[in-house]
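User: Show me an example of a complex going from sequences to C-alpha cells.

Assistant: Sure. Here are the input components:
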Amino acid sequence: MGTLRVPDVPPSADQDCERLNKAFDGLGTDEEAIIWVLGSRNASQRRRIKDRYQQLYNESLIERLHSELSGDFAKAVILWTQDPPERDAKLAKDALKEKKKGIKHLEVIVEIACASSPHHLMAVRQAYCSLFDCSLEEDITSTVDMPLRKLLVGLVSSYRYDREVVDMVVAKSEAATLHEAIRTTQLDCDSVVWILCTRNVFQLKSTFDCYKQNYGNPIDQDIKGCVNRDLEALLKLVIWCIDSPEKHFAEVIGNSIIGLGTDEDSLTRAIVTRAEIDTMKIRGEYYNMYNTNLVNAVIGDTSGDYKNFLMALLGA
Amino acid sequence: MGTLRVPDVPPSADQDCERLNKAFDGLGTDEEAIIWVLGSRNASQRRRIKDRYQQLYNESLIERLHSELSGDFAKAVILWTQDPPERDAKLAKDALKEKKKGIKHLEVIVEIACASSPHHLMAVRQAYCSLFDCSLEEDITSTVDMPLRKLLVGLVSSYRYDREVVDMVVAKSEAATLHEAIRTTQLDCDSVVWILCTRNVFQLKSTFDCYKQNYGNPIDQDIKGCVNRDLEALLKLVIWCIDSPEKHFAEVIGNSIIGLGTDEDSLTRAIVTRAEIDTMKIRGEYYNMYNTNLVNAVIGDTSGDYKNFLMALLGA
C-alpha cells in the first residue's frame, strides 16, 4: 500500500491545469500550489493532467516545470509527473551512462526488473526503445561488465507469471541448485540465472524459504564472501527486491540520509517510485531497521519545497 | 506483403456473423461460406467477428467451428480465427509438450521469437502466462535440454528495437565474435546468445553480411558440422528466421509437401501465420528454391475444403 493521498472527488484535469498555470504565472512560482495539485494525484490522473496541459496551453507541462522549478524539488516533481514507464526508462539510461565502479548506480535497474510488475517492466522496455533507439538489453550488454552483465540482461528480459502459483517440489529442488551454486561459488552459472529470471515472485519467495529451512541461513547471508564482491552485492539486491522490496527501499532511504550529507537522488527515487505501491510497508520496515520514524528522518535531512513535496507523497 | 485478400468494403461484423451462423445451421455445414467469410478478413476484423458472434449467439465461435468442422480444414480455420498472440502461445505450448528428438517441433518457437515483430512476441508471452499459469521461459527451461535451452530462453525473452538503425562498427566486431565462436565451436557461449537475442533485426542482417564479406562463407554454412547437431540446426533456423523469414517459410512449406505424404500441421502453420505478413515473398522464394509454383504445389498435395481455404489465404 502506498502513502499517496488522493482526494475522494479530485478536481477535473482542466481545473488542475488551470491551477498549475496560475502557479507558473507572473514573477515567481507558487510552489505550494504545485505540491498541492501534483502531490495528490495518482499516475492516471497525472497523465490526464499532462495531456490536457499540452492541449490547453500548447506547451509541455514537463518543460514548464523544468523552467519554473530548480534543484532537488524540480527533479522530484518532474520524476513524479513523467509517465512511470518513461520515467524508469530514463532512470535506467542514466544509470547505464554512469561509468562508476560497484553496483550502486545499477540499483534502479534491479528495482525495475524485480520489484515492479512484469507488465510495468515490459512497458519500460518499450519506452526505452522508443526513447533511445536501442533496447535496454543492448545497452546493458555494451556497458556493464561481466559477471554482472549476464544476470542483469536476464533480469530485464524477464516476464514473470504474476499470480500466486507455487510448486513446492520446484522450490526444494531449486533451493538445492542455488545452494550448490553458492557452495561451488558458481553464482553466475546458467541455472542460477534461469531460476532468478524466469520464476514468478511467489515461487522464488518459497525457494528462498526452503533454502533457509534446509541449509540453515538466509540465502542472502550465504552469498556473502563467496564470489566477486560486485556479483555478491547484485545478488543480494536481487533477492531483497524479490523477497521484500520494502526492506530494500527502506535501506535505500536509510543509506541516503544516515551519515554526513544526503543522497537526494536516491531518496527522491525511492519515495517517488514507491509512493503508489508500498511506502506504507517501507515506513514500517524503516522503523524495524533503524528504530526511528521514516517521516521524521526525512524531515531532518531535507528542507523547503523539496521536503514538503516528499511529505505529500509520504502522506505526512 | 501478405496474400490475404480483404474486400475494399467488407460486410459489418454482424453481417459476417449472420452468414456464419447460417452456414452452421441445419444438417451439414456450408464450408464454402465459412471460407468465403473468414478467409477474406484480416486479424482485427476476425477479432470483431469473434466478439460479436459471442454477443449475438451467446456461444464461442471457436467452439462452434470445432463442432462443425473436422480434420485439417478445422485445424486451419480455427488457427486462423484465434487471436494471433493466443494462437502462437498455444502453438508454443504444443511444441513444448512434444517429447521429440531433434528440433523440428521447436521451429514454431523460433518463428515467434525471430520472425515476428517484437510487439507480437511480447503479446505472445502475455497470452502464454494467461493461458498456462506460467511463463514461456519457465516451460522452455524445464522441458528443453541444453544446449538448446539457453539460446531459446534468450530468444523468447528478447524485445528488439524495431526500426532500421545499424552500426557498422558493431556489425564488424560482432561478426568477428561470431566467427571466433564458430572457430572454437563455442556456439552457445554468452556472447553469441547476447548478439542473437538483443540486437535489432537490421543490425543482425548487417552482421551476417559482414561475416560473409570478411570470412568468405555465409554464416549458416560455416556453422555446419562445427557443433552439436541440434544446436547447429537451431542456429541455422535462427539465422534464417532473422535474415530472410521468407526463405525459412518457403522451406517449411517445401519440406511439408515434397516427398511421400504431407505434413499438414507445418503447411497450415506456415500459411496461416504468414498470410498477413509475407506470403507474397514466400511464393517468390519458393519459386527460387524449388523452381516450381508454390500455389500449384499446395494444390497438388491437398484437397477439398482444406485446399480451398489455403488457396483463399494464398490469394489464389
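The lines above are the inputs; the final block is the predicted structure for all two components together. The CA atoms of residues 45 and 93 of chain A lie 26 Å apart.
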